[in-house]
Amino acid sequence: MAPSPRTSTRQDATALPSMSSTFWAFMILASLLIAYCSQLAAGTCEIVTLDRDSSQPRRTIARQTARCACRKGQIAGTTRARPACVDARIIKTKQWCDMLPCLEGEGCDLLINRSGWTCTQPGGRIKTTTTDVESP
């Protein structure tokens, strides 16, 4: 009589199903980790692109794009020279210095036309930041 297809005399026959379930468990955990890591926590930002142009002497032009997951009433802005979620009122009123955009020890001043701000270091070096925010 021929052996039943369900029984096997192979030694690795019992290891194959457990290895398969372990493999799928690992794949599910890995995909969940990838999905979770691509999500930003509420109230946080990350820099997506950063371009620097130093072609002009004594001047560097930097452009950056940030991705933020802001809470209700907040919008992407800058705090301590890093992307951050700030109160939306600051952006609407263009009171840029209220979001504390400069590093500690630097002074913040609005540009005359409110298109941005300057950060003045104690040594006199000035960093100017302009925005693309249009008037309301």
From TrEMBL:
GO molecular function: G protein-coupled receptor binding; receptor ligand activity
Keyword annotations of the record: Membrane, Signal, Transmembrane, Transmembrane helix
Transmembrane segments: 23-49
Listed GO CC annotations: extracellular space
InterPro entries associated with the record: Chemokine-like_TAFA, TAFA-5
GO biological process, one term: G protein-coupled receptor signaling pathway
Record-linked PANTHER family: CHEMOKINE-LIKE PROTEIN TAFA-5, CHEMOKINE-LIKE PROTEIN TAFA-5-RELATED
Family to which this protein belongs: Belongs to the TAFA family.
Protein name, as recorded: Chemokine-like protein TAFA-5
